[in-house]
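Try this one yourself first.
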């Protein structure tokens, strides 16, 4: 059975018609034996873009959230409110942590809330049936989720702005909630990333270790490499080659400069995963 992945929310729009909306965030619909929604964007574009692309909210059987940032979870209430039935929502429990961006300015430092926009109870009232993911978990016959990615004990994100507030204090975000999907398709295993906050290298290596896969047919989604050190960027490129990835479709937090580098490195194997993009495997 063909697996189709349609990008619903992203920073850019690939087609001018129908009138689709771009936004800083990410969401895509996975359609195979049934439909799985991966992330929900900020909430500005998902209703418009679903409708313009002929997608039905009630056809969605489950929602998976890659992490607890607003630009991936902001449309969750909209999706739930557009459905008639209760909806399984898969995520790591730490996605509900109080996530912050700490941004230094010339005169002061500001602390911005960047977490989920509603409480667990509000989402449940709207129809969410939360299913917590820890580690590597099979969701359907063809889709598995990975969180709590295996990393060195001294690992830290290179994006030092991203924090969480715990007991009134600001701490580094360890991104235990960073969740990626592995989809078994007719073309081979496909990896879907939200932002790869846990590190694209670590995610692919952990998936390989847990599944025995030595090749991934495609990697799609955000890579968060714009602020990564050069040595890590080079390692990421080498890791994609090591796993013989045939389609690399970057999006959202990858950044224009890094997307250009991916395009130069991987040529015909590269694509932008913009709103309106459809990938079939």
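Now uncover the answer:
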């Amino acid at each position: 059975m063909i697996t189709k992945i349609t990008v619903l929310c992203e920073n850019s729009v690939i087609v001018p018609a129908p009138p689709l909306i771009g936004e800083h965030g990410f969401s895509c619909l996975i359609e195979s034996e049934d439909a799985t929604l991966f992330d929900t964007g900020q909430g500005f574009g998902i209703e418009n873009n679903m409708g313009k692309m002929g997608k039905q909210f009630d056809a969605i059987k489950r929602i998976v959230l890659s992490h607890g940032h607003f630009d991936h979870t902001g449309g969750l209430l909209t999706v739930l409110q557009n459905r008639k039935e209760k909806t399984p929502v898969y995520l790591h429990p730490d996605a509900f942590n109080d996530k912050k961006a700490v941004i230094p300015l010339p005169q002061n430092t500001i602390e911005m809330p960047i977490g989920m926009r509603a409480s667990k109870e509000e989402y449940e009232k709207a129809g969410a049936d939360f299913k917590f993911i820890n580690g590597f978990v099979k969701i359907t016959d063809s889709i598995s989720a990975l969180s709590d990615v295996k990393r060195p004990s001294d690992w830290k994100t290179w994006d030092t702005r991203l924090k969480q507030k715990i007991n009134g204090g600001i701490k580094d975000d360890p991104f235990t909630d960073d969740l990626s999907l592995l989809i078994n398709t007719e073309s081979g295993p496909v990896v879907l990333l939200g932002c790869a906050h846990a590190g694209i290298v670590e995610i692919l290596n952990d998936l390989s270790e847990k599944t025995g896969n030595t090749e991934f047919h495609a990697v799609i989604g955000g890579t968060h490499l714009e602020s990564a050190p050069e040595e890590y960027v080079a390692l990421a490129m080498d890791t994609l080659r090591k796993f013989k990835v045939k389609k690399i479709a970057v999006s959202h937090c990858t950044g224009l400069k890094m997307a250009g580098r991916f395009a130069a490195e991987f040529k015909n194997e590269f694509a932008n995963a913009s709103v309106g993009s459809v990938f079939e495997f």
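Discussion: The mean pLDDT is 96. The helical segments are 46-52, 70-73, 76-81, 120-125, 200-211, 230-242, 256-266.
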